[in-house]
Protein: Methyltransferase small domain-containing protein
Organism: Saitoella complicata
Amino acid sequence: MHQPTSSISPRTDARILEQTSPPTRKMNKTQAIHGLLEYLEGKEYFFLTPTPETHALVDQKLRKNDDVTAKCLTDVFGWSMEFEMPLEDFPESLLLKLRDENLIQKKAENRYWSTIRVSTLYPPGPYLPSSSALPRNLYTHSAFPTHDQSAVFFGPDTYRFLRFMTQAYKHFGHLLPKDPIPQAADVGTGGGAGAIHLRHLLGRYARVYGLDLSPKAIELAGINARYIFPLNTTGPAPPDFAESDILSGLPRPYPPSHPNFVPGVDREHDPGLDLLVCNPPYIASATQTYAAGGTAKSGLDLPLRILAEALGEKGVRVGGMVWFYTGVPVPIRGRRKDMFYEEVEIMTADGEGGKGYKWEVLEYDVMDVDIFGCEMETHEGPYKGIGRIQAIGCVLQKVEV
Ligand SMILES: C[S@@+](CC[C@H](N)C(=O)[O-])C[C@H]1O[C@@H](n2cnc3c(N)ncnc32)[C@H](O)[C@@H]1O
């Protein structure tokens, strides 16, 4: 069982920090990234991450006239361009700290490249129920291009996922328990966006976990979350993050003997999660590393495996919910119900006889009818016969019968 990267009691103002302090290397990396984010926040840095296809086209535009040197901070930390010093008033000391952690690489004499990108987490708009301005709104993820399999993903899909969660919270948040506090997990958290958003939505009185197969993602998620929710303030604590194959590494609630156990807040028995949210990998080409095979439907293997665990005995408790975001391939002559919906119907069909619960689909929202259109480019391969990929948001509840 993996332990969470931080363990904070949500109801106590005096925070109980992890007993063992993180290794110095991790601290240095955290400090270097937080230093960068604070500096960029001070410069009112703003960058919304486009799709990789758009990024590649913009890259070509920027490289026109062979001018491949960054002109500003956005070129460096948004468009992943090489840069030279001095760059605006970017401090030499910060450059050195980032270089020490390999977050900035030296490419040639006085020529550098950032291995991370910095993006605005929440674009303007109704992402959060409260309209109060966020003091910290920057987020770190992998530089472009993200060919490396361990790259930490962030992009338009994440923005849609967060919007879907806000919408689900507005419609169904009242179904979450108030006492004892909700236990929620973001499966496939990547850089932690979903878990961070859950913490914003649910407030401090919730246990929030971010889970991912990738250790690199878990490390970055912890750093991102501790930037958005600094430990030395009275605001909500950052979520806990753990390496996990779907739910296998989900940290169990603190037992009554644990110093972080808060009587009346933590449960003495573990009834499972109250909420599971997920934005899994679903592009067939990208998911081939996770699932064998190469049909469009194989892109749904992992989303369906995650959904099956969420709906299974070790997933969500009776009364709890699943907020699932994914992309679904639709055949050229597709019909009203998509492949994912058909699978959801099979998985939630009655016949749970004697179990005392059933699953109900509370909402199935086609959020965008056409995403990743570039996947339609080839006439062979996984998307042969597919006309488009649609983004859907599905809300399910496990109800008592
Ligand atoms: C499409 S990315 C989404 C990241 C993040 N949720 C977001 O919206 O920005 C999917 C993530 O799922 C993770 N993943 C893949 N297989 C997994 C598994 N079996 N268990 C947990 N996470 C997994 C990947 O490492 C990746 O970070």
About this structure: The chain has ten helices and eleven strands. Residues 156-400 form a domain with the Rossmann fold fold (CATH 3.40.50.150). The pocket of S-adenosylmethionine is lined by residues 153-154, 158, 161, 187-190, 193-194, 211-214, 217, 244-246, 279-281, 290, 302 (CB under 6 Å).
